[in-house]
Amino acid sequence: MTIKLVALVGIFVALPIILYGQFEKADRQTRNLVAENLRHHGWFIAQALIPILDHANDVSDPELEAALEKFSGDGTLLRLMFRPAGQNGANGFYFIASAPHISAQQTGPDLDILAQQGILKALADSCSWDKPVEFRYQQVNGSEEIITSINPINGRLGCWALISANNSSALLSTAFGRPYWQTENVRMAALIYLAFAVLAGLVAISVRRALRHFRNVAREIRRGGVGTVAFASRNILPELASAATDFDRLVEDLHHAASDIRRTAEDNAHAVKAPLAIIKSALEPLRRAISEDDQRSQRAVQLIDSALGRLSTLVSTAQQLGNDTANFIEAPKLRINLTTVVAEGLRNARDISAEKNIRFIRHLDENTYILAPEGILDIIVENILDNAISFSNDGATITTTLVKSKSRIDLQIEDEGPGIDPNKIERIFERNFSFRPSKARDDGAPAHAGLGLWIVRHHTEVLGGQVTASNRAEGGLCVHLTLPGNGC
After folding, report:
1. Strand partners for 478
2. What are phi and psi of 409, to 5 degrees?
């Protein structure tokens, strides 16, 4: 979505630049065509005036202005100026006539504007100059004119100059005499585009704000901080109302599922423990009734008693696992200091393994936090340490390393035991599978049910991490946990 948004913004920015270039090019071509047409129009008018100017007895002949009136129209403004023969310089030109007619008060300011634009100086330098000129200026009455061409006419009385201007709306909408971005069309398009950009930005901000709010509510639900109707009651965007209701129903279903898991685990444990207790109670009279000389019967009773103990352990473990699974769904996710959990687990392991004189070495980063239900991390650390202790010989060393980074947490627990057959090392996290050695018990039954590392993998993956095992080059096993650093 971010890539698409960046691409959309890029198109949004590039589009007006590309269109502006294309439209400016089209406007420039239009200006050239119009200017050339007006120049030719002015040249034809000048040619039509030559006979009149040659026969004029005086430069103030009324026929001159009447002739100009015939050719003006459609927004065309004509000014006729004259420089007597033998005179030079910009001051040698005089204003003779105009069409439409302008008052004497307007004549002076208009000549000043022409002088400021360099038109009079250009006429003074050469009376044969006839190239187009493009610039805008305001007349005294406030209207805007566009100079398009100046046509010199050499007559018997001197040099005449016909200045052709235009103030039609068709020309004023183009970029004659000003940058293209100053035209009304571009400004209007820019305002519309800006309004659209602001509207799109407001929509994007609103959606982003709603999604962020939605995410925050989801995070609170995941942490167990709100009830089952959090989305609908806290939604701020009407368009997401139906989605919020569906999310509430999903959360409610998860709560029901957690309750069912917990209740089923308790019911199953109760249903199995009762028969086990009866069998164990009935086993006592049999044990007393069997003669000490009957070794076979004694052995059978021991096997039954061992199997009952193992079944009891399996039932308790299954019940605990069901409760842990339910807690993952609905128990509050707390910001737990994993450093403290590991340190406490090492202290307990040292007390348990005091008789084996095991040495514990630890390298723990301080204040390593992670989001998890209370007690889950304790179970993970306890089971890994229990596995390491059971494989360690007297006087061995167990090394624990906890390292945190910006996005992940790494926990390694290494022992100096016999390690695992490389062909079977992937199976140590399977359920009910154990390579743990038996402790020379008379019944010969395994001391463990093979659920410890399976529970470690289950709980680690539910927390969003992963666990692996590898043999150490120096001998022994290394269990490596990688957890998300989401509690910082």
Report:
1. 414, 470
2. -130, 130
CATH of the domain at 421: 3.30.565.10
Query: Do both 168 and 143 map to the same domain?
Result: yes
Q: List, in order, residues 6 or more apart from 290 with CB less than 8 Å away.
A: 297, 298, 301
Domain count, the chain: 3
Question: Omega of the bond prior to 100 within 30 degrees of 0, cis?
Answer: yes
Residue 367: give the domain boundaries: 332-488
In 64-103, DSSP assigns E strands to 76-84, 94-99
pLDDT in tens, 371-422: 888 888 999 999 999 989 988 889 999 999 999 988 899 999 999 988 888 8
- The CA distance from 269 to 312, in Å, is 9
First-residue to last-residue Cα distance in the chain: 26
- Domain membership of residue 187 (yes or no) is no
The answer to whether the peptide bond before residue 484 is cis (omega within 30 degrees of 0) is no
Contact 200, 216 (CB under 8 A): no
CATH number of the domain where residue 305 is located: 1.10.287
Shared domain check, 307 and 405? no
Last residue of a domain, one of 135, 159, 182: 182
DSSP-derived secondary structure for 24-66 = HHHHHHHHHHHHHHHHHHHHHHHHHHHHHHHH-SSTT-HHHHH
The string of pLDDT tens digits covering residues 188-211 is 888 888 888 888 888 888 878 877
Report pTM: 0.53
